[in-house]
Amino acid sequence: MKINKRKKRILFTIACLFLAGFFLLALVNLEKQDKRGLLPGKKGNDIEKEKKGIIASGDEVKILFGGDVMFDRYIRQIMQKRGDDFVLSDIKKFLFENDVVIANLEGPITGNESLSAGSIIGERNNYVFTFDPEVADVLADNNIKVVNIGNNHILNFGADGAKETKKYLTDSGVKFFGNFNGNDSPSEYVLDVQGVKVGLVNCNQFSVDFKNETLEGIKKMKFEADKIVVYAHWGKEYETGDIEEWEKNLAHEFIDEGADLIIGSHPHVVQKKESYKGKMIYYSLGNFVFDQYFDVNTQKGLLVQLIIDEQKNIKFQEHEISLQKNGKTILK
């Protein structure tokens, strides 16, 4: 009797060890599948597709456009104090309700020491930006997987700073496009969202011959994309009134050439929108992440959701955001 009980205890112990080993192997396998995108709700090739610029989606394609993101000065200090996730934590869930988020990266990502953090408003260093290398991961972790780098701040730390930026973005899986003087990367990018190809073309007012470069980019995208979006860095800063004639004429010319949508950044305030030949022009979406708390208008931003159905028809949803003095961006 004692022998039988002993055997039972041994068999029970062996069975427990076997089950523990089985569950451990299962957990390891699940972790591998998750990294490869094989868990339910993901497609097996999603990660490989993302490397090629292809984003997995449902029946509708949802692309969210935002304005200027700036991670230096006060925003840098807040992130150092409260953590990298703090600034976008309130809207992270909403950002991931879209297939991809696109914004203007208002400065380079480098390993250089910040000149603007702690600087006095109005002095030169206050307008010289560099973002911590961790910012590339912050973008990716918040579904901001494509950024425009054709703007007036990308060369704040010279050509080397722009080169570093592209390296950090690439390492984090964030795609980029944009015109700037001395740029050796394409001004256009084709975003493939589950077979729907969206051609992104940058218009950078601060780049030499930007008008013709943008028109050439649109012509090129006609042969490569289903829809063409011009992401423009242009206009008059802090202007909330009428759009200047040159800017209107240029926007109309881009649509005449074949653009389906124009998204603007740079003025740091939300500006007027316009429908021209059935195509939408958002002259400026204002700030997305920024520390300009001196005026109510610079604390407002607009996120524009481009929705493309299976027949490639498009519609838009607009979402107002507010930039809080604690550094956070929130939905209104």
Helix content: 25-40%
Helix-strand category: alpha/beta
The CATH superfamily of the largest domain turns out to be Metallo-dependent phosphatases
| Tertiary shape | globular
CATH class of the largest domain: Alpha Beta
Uncertain parts: 32-54
What's the number of helices? 8
pLDDT averaged over residues: 88
Whole-number total of structural domains: 2
Q: In what range is the share of β-strand residues?
A: 25-35%
CATH architecture of the largest domain: 4-Layer Sandwich
Give the secondary structure arrangement, pairings included.
Layout lengths: L1 H35 L9 H6 L2 E2 L5 E9 L3 H10 L9 H4 L4 E6 L28 H8 L2 E5 L9 H14 L3 E3 L10 E6 L2 E9 L5 H12 L5 E7 L11 H13 L3 E5 L7 E4 L2 E4 L4 E3 L10 E9 L5 E10 L5 E3 L1
Parallel strand pairs: 1-6, 2-3, 2-12, 3-4, 4-5, 7-8, 8-9, 9-11
Antiparallel strand pairs: 2-13, 6-7, 10-11, 13-14, 14-15
Helix pairs in contact: 7-8
Can you describe this structure?
The chain is an alpha/beta fold and 332 residues long. The protein folds into 2 domains: 1-36; 49-331, Metallo-dependent phosphatases (Purple Acid Phosphatase, chain A, domain 2), CATH 3.60.21.10. The protein has 8 helices and 15 strands. The chain has helices at 2-36, 46-51, 73-82, 92-95, 134-141, 158-171, 210-221, 245-257, and strands spanning 54-55, 61-69, 100-105, 144-148, 175-177, 188-193, 196-204, 227-233, 261-265, 273-276, 279-282, 287-289, 300-308, 314-323, 329-331. Strands 2, 3, 4, 5, 12, 13, 14 and 15 form an 8-stranded mixed sheet that branches. Strands 1-6-7-8-9-11-10 form a 7-stranded mixed sheet. Helix 7 packs parallel to helix 8 (245-257). The longest helix has 35 residues, at 2-36. It is globular, with a radius of gyration of 24 Å. 42% of the residues are buried. Mean pLDDT is 88; it is low at 32-54.
